[in-house]
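Changelog-adjacent note: as of this version, every example in the card shows the full chain rather than a window. The one below runs 858 residues end to end.
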Amino acid sequence: MNFRFKKLAQKTYMMALGLLAAASMASCDGYNLADREPEWLGSSIYDYLNSEERYQNMVRIIDDMNYREVLSKTGSKTLFVADDEAFQRFYQNNSWGVKRYEDLSGAQKKLLLYGAMINNACQVAYLSSSEGPTEGDCMRRLTSGSIYDSVPVLKPSAMPANENWAYYRKTNKSIPCFEDMSTAPMIHFIEDFLNDRLITNDDCDFLFNYQTKRQAGDANVNGIAMVEQNIKCSNGFVHRMQDVLTPMTNMAEFINSHSTMSGYAKLLDRFCAPYYAGDVATREYNRLNGTNVDSVFQKRYFSERSQGGEALTLTPAEGPVNGKLKFDPGWNEFYSSGSSTISADVALQRNMGVMLVPTDKALNRYWNEGAGKVLKEYYGTWENVPDNVVSKMLNVSMLNSFVNSVPSKFQTILNDANDEMGIKKEDVDSVFMTCNGAIYLTNKVFNPVAYISVSFPALVNETMKVLYWGIDQLGYDVYLNSQNSYYSLFIPTNGAMLDYIDPCSFGKNQTQLFRFRYDATAQTESEKVTASIWNYDTETGTVGDSIGVASYTQITNRLEDILNTHIVIGNVEDGHSYYQTKGGSVIRVQHAESGENGMTVAGGGQMENGKQLAVTKIYDESVEGNGKTYIIEDEPIMTARQSVSDVLSSNPDFSEFNSLLQSSSYLETKHVIGTEEHGCASTNISLFNTFRYTIFVPTNESIQKLIKDGKLPTWDDVEKAETEEEKAELAEQIELFLKYHIVDNAFYVGQGIDDGSYETSAYSVDADNNVSYYKVTVSADGDTGLRVRDVLGNTRKVITTNDASYNRMAREYQYDAADAANAQNIYTSSHAVVHQIDGVLEYKTPSSLPLKGEGSHE
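Full-length structure tokens:
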């Protein structure tokens, strides 16, 4: 070779190395040839394999796939190759039924070549790095494979037995059907990734059924160990594998093919359907296979997260689905979470899913003897259990994060109540790895808490769908599933939900009624509950004209308020009469001992109108679950319409206190927070702040005596004062008096409260601007009275001789509009109760403003 030609060859070679280095840096960053030249790069991948007698099976595959030229040139590839001895073992035992090389089909050869190759040059150490590079965060990587490498032709007998496949089964028509239209990645466990994700060697051994004993530095791909790493070639790297590397299927297909998972597979298959793969896919399929089919399909699962991270909630006919899975188990490129800062490819590399799949034996035991027996008693057969009910069990077994679901992290796995699931290593018989997740074959079923929750009757009963839709849409299912609390849940039936008086109309000239309806045929989940709006005459109970329909925001706003009013944390059958709800309102329960059709419940709205609602059915979920469920059929529980000012104005026994309040600075019809303005339904107390309060109202006589004794000024005294300073001082005395009778927390006669010291709205500020709230002590007087003691030691009793003077409920609304007449939604509210007491509450502290007659203001 002459000098000039030799220099040209060296220059061309070095340019190739530069391209290889650039490709490496753009992908795995595995071998930075731009920084240093390796001691020996070797020949091309093809030439290396061809020069080694032990790789002739793989060489034949490369030749048959016309890939020799690609792997002979400079480029950027990594090949995970098995030698001929490994192929001989493969021919003796494989799921394809192949006994020798000549038995391999073209599709199988594609899978063996492209499924064992990635389009980057990577050393083993850098397989665990994703783009960036970010070291130690990669466990999966897309191969050189194509979705067209192997497209099954699905026979009618192999199609899932649900209505979405019925047409093809009935017409006895086979269809080409992708198992998924995303590429199946390979899985690799490399040291840096395992260390970074705190996955122990024992975790790894568990994942491979203790058939391995992992040591530091071990690496495997698709569960197959590397026996020789980092064989350098001019166009990439070769890693020799212990056995033949075959592409992994996805979780859904593996479950369908496994004999001991057939029961679970049937339940899972309810949620899949054939979707048209598109014109481009159909043409490409025909071109590659020399066929002329009119349509090619893909199998997908109804789920909250499917291809591209998007939900799939419509059938191929664009109808609504009856239930959906947590994620699509057939989605090859599944990723646990996405982010606007990373691509889907990077998200895929970092994690995968897990499914806890019970054996058929475990599933049968669950149905006949275990927690699933409640379903058997209700429905009779698995086939009769609706999809939206079955999905609860399937979803609790679907875990979004593999890296957080290995044995050393089992204690972090949560159920559908966000409580520890309690899985143990001994619950898992075997582990199977797939391209999008690990399958833990379990000897038990992990029961969803939804089946033993107080919300369960609404889940399974068609007559309670409106409220259950609200539970689901607003995320109350997790709350109501908690096994750490005892709940009393009141559920109005669909019929009862036709008569909901809208609190947002209380500030309008015309009261309005919402009529909620459930429509199972609606296309999307958000459209399944609708509400028409009607004018309503509260005095006659007459429903007037329909004036429109509520928006989704209005519907969920009202349902959230309804749910908060219908949930009691505690047992409403413990012998008391008044119980605080989740939202802060209080309901009255009577005749609980009479049970169904004897027990009644009423909210403030019912009590204002002398009504009570019959409990027609009681479901006891307290034995294994978390409380009891009470069904009401008349109307929903309604909170009070009246404000505190309305209550005080309605009873002459409250007139003296009300007179002082009406002239104070503590009343408002519009609440202003910065630049926000919120209209009020009535005249509200500005001291309230989205909480619950008690107003202790002294008798008219006791207030008059205080005034007569010169201990409390009147507003007339304020007007007559000669200076502005004196006016302010007298006004502050009146307002401190009022505030000392407004106490944080709502206390009811018959509630069974604990004795305690509680802050009032009155406070003083010292020279250092420290605020001190004046307190009172409140205690129950048996179950028929209340006592309140002021700081001077005076004890006052709630007067219970007149029903109109104690346990008077009030609610003060703020709306989302400055003008209550334009309100669309409840912005916030406070709840209160008004009691008359037999004397005034007094206070005296060194830093307080003294009452008139007790000394001068310092």
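Structural remarks: Residues 3-26 form the longest helix (24 residues).
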